[in-house]
Design a protein that fits this description.
Elements: H1 11-39, H2 51-73, H3 77-96
């Protein structure tokens, strides 16, 4: 975007300004690329989720999904927040209870 009343400047002046700006940005762009290459880390291999985690997630979805859907259907923010907090408390209680843990 050129913000300099381009009608009052010749095409050569405008082209020179754009070219100058492009040339001046090149060292900055190279510095950003060098920094990104220097700071880059090798990706980690993530372990597959344990079957116990899958069972817990499935059970949690069974217990909380309908309540969360109902909570997020609430249009009043404070009422919705209270309902979501109740679902969260129930989920935490179930996750920490011995009876919930899969065998």
């Amino acid at each position: 975007m050129v913000e300099s009343e381009p009608r009052s400047l010749s095409e050569d002046v405008m082209l020179g300004a754009v070219t100058f700006g492009f040339e001046q940005f090149q060292p900055v762009i190279r510095a950003i690329i060098d920094l990104a290459e220097t700071c880059a880390k090798e990706p980690w291999d993530m372990p597959a989720p344990a079957s116990e985690s899958e069972a817990v997630a499935k059970r949690l979805a069974e217990v909380a999904q309908s309540d969360l859907s109902a909570a997020y259907a609430e249009t009043a923010k404070q009422a919705r927040t209270v309902k979501v907090a109740a679902v969260k408390a129930k989920a935490v209680e179930l996750l920490t209870a011995r009876a919930f843990r899969p065998s």
